[in-house]
Structure formats: structure tokens, C-alpha cells
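My current task is to audit a protein record that another person submitted. I need someone to confirm that the C-alpha cell line plausibly describes how this chain folds. Take the sequence as given and treat only the C-alpha cells as open to question. This is what I was given:
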Amino acid sequence: MLTENAWPRAHLVMDDFFAPAALDAIFRELRSLDRLLKPGLVRDLGHDGQSVFFEHPRRRNKALWIHDPSPTVRLFREQLWSAPLLEACEHAREPLFQIIANCWEPHLQVSSYMTGDHYAFHEDEGAGVNLTAIVLLATEPKRVKGGDLVLAYDGDETTIRFRTNRLVIFPSKTPHRVTPVRVDSTDPCHARISLQCWLAYGRPDTKRPRRAHEADRPTFLLAEESILAAAQALSPEVATDQTPEDLYWGAFYLSRILTSNLRCLASAQEGLALGRVRIRRRDELEIHARGKLDGTPVRVGFALRGPGTPPAEALALFVETGKGATRSVARRVVPAGAGERQASAMLRRLLGRAGR
């Protein structure tokens, strides 16, 4: 039965959302996805209003996007848009819930919470997003403590207790959080799971190609000239007279965009393991990390030349091996407009040269 609650803001709750056979199929798929989960990222507003995603202490869990032809996505759609549930939504007191019949979702996010994981207050945002739908799951719910969903609005809060197979739907701009989780197991198969989607008004584009599973990815603005120029002004040799806004975007580019992109690119390279990403101000600005490539010590990162270099030639990827007389650096300029695929291919080639 679908229950509508009005306080502190309208939301819907339904227990026993999936049938037992559907749950069995979903848990089978989730077990196969565990190795693909990556640390969850948070969203911030980047340059020119674009989204930038990065790791942040306010979110601690692992996450993954799943798309068609995922069985979980199909089963979720079949149940959410089943005739009984749609009829219940049509009679909701809150008009926003009455649009569910005319909404769609392109994908689901799987979020896995183990002991100590949580997600602080945040809002869900995206183009056309109206409602958030979350299904809470656990293969062995008695092992899970905490992991409750808290909704807040206008200074008030309500707690929706964790219960496996529970659906919650609420307006996406409602601040919400997940309380700290404790799992009586170290096996990720026993994690507290969320299946989450954002419902957008309108019909899906059936011509869109199918997509594979993927973890959260940061926005790539590697060589966008205006923000890159702001970062160049932070070079060591520059006595800057930049505006506070320029200084903000320059620091944002270095500390968030380039650092999150470096982590993302490195995670996709076979045999490469990097430590903490750091910023170094010497002859150039370097966003770099030390690590190992198949056991060999390396230093990998971005190098940014100062304002005397045209922005289109200022940013480079580099891989450094050895020290002193044996030091070797493979380096390549990142072209304007480079995205994740192109930058990842560049780094792969540089690592290949370093490994020879």
C-alpha cells in the first residue's frame, strides 16, 4: 500500500515494493556489480554553470550508475509504473505526485553503505528533475543498523526508518540525508543498498543507445580557456591583480576539476595505483600524485604553465619515472575540448612510454 505523508514536506512511502522473485533477480545482479562500485562523488557548480563532481567527506559510500539492459532497471520500471501504483499516485493529495504517470527515468544509481558510511544533507538536482524515488534494500536486513533516510524542510525533519524493500518518493529539492550505517559483517553483499532515480517529466528518447554500467564521473573541463587562464594567474612568478572571482575560479580549477579528473583518469589505467593528489608551485603549477606502475615508482599529473603561454598550449599531462640522472619525463599537451576518452588515451600512451 502506498502511504502519503504531508510533514515536513509531502512524500510517499510503500513497503514490499518488489515481489520476491524480482528481489532475487535484483540481488543476483547487485552481487555481480560489487567490483565495479567506486567512491560516491558529490556535485558542485563549476565554471559557466557546469556540474563538477568530486569526493567529499559529506558523502561516504560507493556508487554506480546502471542503464538498459539491466534487469534491475527493467524490474524497477515495471513496478513503479504498474497500474495499481499509478492509480494510487493519481489520487494523491500532492499534485506533484500525480505527474508520475507522465515521468520517466533514464537510469538508476546503486549506492552501497557499509559500516561508517553516510550521506549528509543534500538536494538532488538535474535537468528536468522533479521527484526522487529511492528503494532501500539489504540481503540480510537484520545485519544493518542505521541507514535511515531523513527528510528536512522549513526547519523540521522526519526520519524514515531503514526497512528493506521500502520505496520512498519525494520532491527532489527536499534536503535529505542517510544516517550513519553499521553492518554486522565485512561482506559487501550484506551492505545497506539504495536504488535511486530522478524522475523527469516527459517521455524517454527511445533512440538513445544502450549504456553500460558506470561509476560516477567528474565533469571534464580540462582545457576550457577562460577558467584555465584564471588558474594560470596563480603561477608562482605572477604578482596577480586578479579579481576575487578570477582567483576563486583559478583555485577551483586546480583543487577540484584537475584533481578529480586526475583520480578518474588514473583509476582507469591498468597497473597504476596513485596516492594523495597534491598541488606544487615551482616553475609550473603541478597537480600530481606519486604511486606505482606495475611496481615501478612514478609521478603522474597535470602541469600548467604561466600566463606567458597561450591557454591552448598551457596544460599538459605528464608521467615521471626515476630520479636525478635517471629521471625521465613523458609529457603531452592537452588540447582544448579534450574529454575523458581522449585524456585517458593520452595518459595510457604516456604510461606506455614510461614503462619501456
Notes: Residues 48 and 256 are 15 Å apart (CA to CA). The chain has a mean pLDDT of 87. DSSP finds seven helices and 24 strands in the chain. The first helix runs from residue 20 to 33.
